[in-house]
Amino acid sequence: MIPSLSWKNIWRNKVRSLIVMGAMAFGIFGGLFSTAIYTGMSDRRMKEALTKESSHIQIHDRHFMENPEVGLTLADPQGLVAFAESLPGVKAAASRLKIVTMINSPAASTGVTVSGIDPEREKRVSELYTAVYDSITLAKRLKLTDSGVIGTYLRDSTGRWFGSVQRNPIVIGEKLARKLKVKVNSRVVLTFQAADGNLTGGSFRVCGIYRMDNKAFEEMNVFVQQADLAPLAALPAEVAHEVAVFMEIPDLTGKVITTIAERYPDLEVTGWKELLPDLAMLNDQIVLLSMIMIIIIMAALGFGIVNTMLMVVLERVKEFGMLIAVGMSRKRVFYMIILESVLLCLTGASAGMAVGALFIGIFSRKGIDLSAYAQQGLEAMGFSAVMYPSLSWDFYLMVGASVIITGLLASVYPAWKALKLNPADALRTE
Amino acid sequence: MNIIEINDLVKIYDDRKSVPVTAINGITLNFREGEFTTIVGPSGSGKTTLLNILGGLDEPTSGSIIIDGVDLNKLKPREVIDFRMRNIGFVFQAYNLIPVLTALENVEFIMHLQGRPKAERLERAKDLLDQVGLGDRLNTRPGKLSGGQQQRVAVARALASKPKFILADEPTANLDSKSAETLLDIMEKLNHDEKITFIFSTHDARVVAKAHRVITVEDGYVKSDVDFPEH
Fewer CB in a 10 Å sphere around the end CB: N or C, chain B? Predict the structure, then answer.
């Protein structure tokens, strides 16, 4: 009966309660939506980084990461791949050659990292193949009517993830294509130092151009077939510089790293948090910043609730006096006031969460296009200019819990004032 | 049989900022079961203070109040609240109903505090509201009832806890004469038929006229204490 009484008491002064609930709803909505934007950005960046750039684990020669020399190869990459794939939680593994080269076109030249891959096996550890578009598909996907916007050098191209060019195919990023002024079927030349110390080079034909949010990756990474690259680098066909492991169950990454490191103590086994330290930090910071923001919002709303609940208590002194007089224990009066405050907060917060979930749901599909304001800056940092807000249910639960705590804390002082009432004095008030 | 025994009761208000005021100055009184008593006296005579102390709402400076064998002074504050809930019914001048609850819920509420089962609460609340003539207004909120009707709900509420006696502080002060008459008739009937003890504080001559015993208080003393057994 007391919960129902508390609920009815909230609606005594509808306007006041609705204003408080509105403030709570608006604050919660703001907190949720902005957190969802940050989380969505971070999640998308993280997903792209893991699925198209680094995978969850990379294995190299112990010195390769600090000094990527062509000669620092893994002796038995196939054995390593097989071992990694036998571990629980691993989806697939693939070996790669990785060489720092100069790439030249008639128009320009620049330094890039070339990955020598087995295109079919690579599909199992990287989704980069899904990012290769021909201009028509790209235009359709980007909802562009003028293909010129995509870039002159992509016009009429029909890019593919290998296969379309018979000899020495190469897949490059869109940003690099613009820089080198090349398109599908253009020729580029890779120049690098081979394992035997000689300067070597090879001519490759662009078979596909990929497009990602991370423009820096697009500019710095090109992909060729392992079988084409190994002879040029004076390396045996079976060696590799890197084995990438993609996890089916990402939570088991730590365990898999430990198992591989124990089996291959001479190799360097690196997890994604070390491979992408900025992203790992960003991920942690977003959670922390979101929590700080919610605490600030709650603190601001809390003062409003204290004020409202104080008014409630002052207006109802006589009634509290009567309740204590007829035998309602002070503990129950205290509980009733606390419950009123918590219900007031929760009702407002539920509305805020419902609207927040609705907007987050809508924009997680439609996206929020910021390309007119901040495209270059965002893309340079690896983020998409179109944001897709997303928020896990944990966060809603955390916000719900913080609302209850706010309601509780904000009502303690007003409820304590009611607790101290002398019923005889309270009954005399007008 | 005495239901309340007051011995040498003194109440001095002393907030240490102004001159101490002696509201009750050594009152000794007994109340028997089934009384229909009014305490009268001019404003400031000490009758409301006496009623508050009788109801355990205020503490005496000295003296004792023994209700049904229990010395109120010896109870802890929490026990006093519980004692009030189980033994004393209150009717206030300003009705003091809970505005967001219906007449039925207002009467039921005190039984809820006592922890009685829902079915019993509902049956008794309906029965009591019937007795005060509001059987057809069970689901009406106080705001939609007249002053007289609200006070009748308050009487039903006071009876709900099956108290040993009912304290009514100027219950007719806010009522027109017809409503006051109806209310007094109901209380008199309850007293006569069910032997419920009523103690009023009042200025109202209509209440005094119905009383079986009239205690006049002045300057904190009992000036007179007269029985009217012919009622």
Answer: N
| C-alpha distance from B111 to closest chain A C-alpha (Å) | 10
The top-scoring range by mean pLDDT among A174-188, A190-204, A284-298, A363-377 is A190-204
With a pLDDT cut of 70, the percent of chain B lying above it is: 99
So what's the pLDDT on residue A383?
80
Domain spans in chain A, listed from the N-terminal domain onward = 2-47+280-428, 63-265
- Are A8 and B114 inside 8 Å of each other by CB? no
Q: What is the mean pLDDT of residues B32-41?
A: 92
pTM of the predicted model, to two decimals? 0.77
Query: Cβ-count burial of A88 within 10 angstroms (0-12 exposed, 13-18 middle, 19+ buried)?
Result: exposed
The answer to whether the CB atoms of B112 and A330 lie below 8 A apart is no
Local confidence band at A151 (pLDDT 50, 70, 90 cut-offs): very low
CB atoms under 10 Å from CB of A356, counted, come to 25
DSSP B100: T
Is residue B75 pLDDT above 90, yes or no? yes
Query: Which member of A5, A326, A423 has the closest CB to residue B101?
Result: A5
- This model of the complex carries an ipTM of 0.90
Domains contained in chain B, CATH given: 35-59+75-227 (3.40.50.300)
Mean pLDDT computed over A160-175: 82
Strands (E), chain B: 2-13, 21-32, 36-40, 62-67, 70-71, 88-91, 165-169, 197-202, 213-218, 221-227
CA distance A407 to chain B (A): 22
Nearest CA in chain A to B157: A326
| pLDDT bucket at B124, cuts 50 / 70 / 90 | very high
Instruction: For chains A and B, count residue pairs whose Cβ atoms are closer than 8 Å.
Output: 62
Nearest-by-CA chain A residue for B90? A326
Span A354-373, pLDDT tens digits:
999 999 999 999 888 887 77
Chain B hits for A8, Cβ within 8 Å: 100-101
B92 CB within 8 Å of a chain A CB: yes
Per the CB < 8 Å rule, is A427 touching B58?
no
Name which residue leads in pLDDT, B44 or A223: A223
Interface residue B161 vs chain A (CB under 8 A): yes
